[in-house]
Amino acid sequence: MIDSADSSLAPPPPPAAGGQGNPWERRASLGYGAGLLESIKLFIVSPSAAYEQTLKRGDFLSPLLFAVIVGWFGAILGQIWQFFFQGSLLNLIPPDVRDQVVPFLSTTPIELAISMILLPIFLVIGLFIWSLLFHLSLLLVGALGVSESGFEGTFRVNGYAYVVQLAAVVPFIGWIIGLVWFVALQTIGAARIHDTTPGRAFVGAVLPLFVCCVCFGLIAVMFGALVASAFQSG
Predict the structure, then answer these.
(1) Which of 23, 179, 183, 218 is the most buried (most CB within 10 A)?
(2) How far is residue 14's CA from residue 16's CA, in Å, rounded to a whole number?
(3) What residues have CB less than 8 Å from 152, skipping those under 6 apart?
(4) How far apart are alpha carbons 149 and 49 in whole angstroms?
């Protein structure tokens, strides 16, 4: 009887790691603002702990909303920097070619407003496309052998990794910081969510970037050749 009474008074065991979700996934109890800010802080300060708390499965909505909110805010910061510094950047271009590149580098207030309105749509499309590429890459390197979450897990990793959009607060080099940071978060997140090794997760993260760099490099070479040919013929 004594043992039975003692066991009934014992505290319940702590929940398993990741069983309740990260703060954003617990926004119903914490509140949207608190859940968002706490998750942003957690993914910045301690991404390993953040992904450890993140649910492996649950829904697509939580990471999608998180990505759109932080991505939209980060893009606003980037556009503001571009708007204020575009004059200085244009002054660095030789006068004889400045008029030809102005339409590509300058942004009017109207164009800025339109881009901010349409940005959430592009963020959603980009998130699904890049998650698909990342998932295929993880599949190629054998990182999904024991995964329980499949594509949803990859989507969740990328969705929360969109916190790197806040690197746009750093002018000029923010995109470099964000790129390195994004690969790091993908590696940490995929290793935990898919129960794979950090090495496989890292290769899976950089492989799509490598392919994209090669493709853009070929396009840049072809475009440069066309421009050079146009100048020579002119």
Answers:
(1) 23
(2) 6
(3) 57, 60
(4) 19
Instruction: Find the angle CA(127)-CA(196)-CA(54) to the nearest 5 degrees.
Output: 55
Instruction: Answer for the pair 211, 161: CB distance below 8 angstroms, yes or no.
Output: no
Residue pair 50/26 in contact by the 8 Å Cβ criterion: no
Tokens of 42: 């957690």
Amino acid (one-letter) located at 217: G
Q: Which two structure tokens, joined as six digits, stand for 184?
A: 């790091």
Q: What is the DSSP string of 92-130?
A: TS-HHHHHHHHHHH---HHHHHHHHHHHHHHHHHHHHHH
Q: How far is it, in rounded angstroms, from Cα 12 to Cα 212?
A: 50
- From first to last of the 234 residues of the chain, give the pLDDT tens digit: 444 444 444 444 444 444 589 999 999 999 999 999 999 999 999 999 999 999 999 889 999 999 999 999 888 877 777 666 655 555 555 555 555 555 555 566 777 777 778 889 999 999 999 999 999 999 999 999 999 999 999 999 999 999 999 998 887 788 899 999 999 999 999 999 999 999 999 999 999 988 888 887 878 777 777 766 656 665
Look at residue 171 and give its three-state secondary structure. coil
pTM for the model = 0.78
Is 133 in contact with 204 (CB distance < 8 Å)? no
Taking the domains of the chain in order of start, what are their residue ranges?
20-233
CA-based end-to-end distance of the chain: 100
Phi then psi for residue 147, to 5 deg, are -65, 140
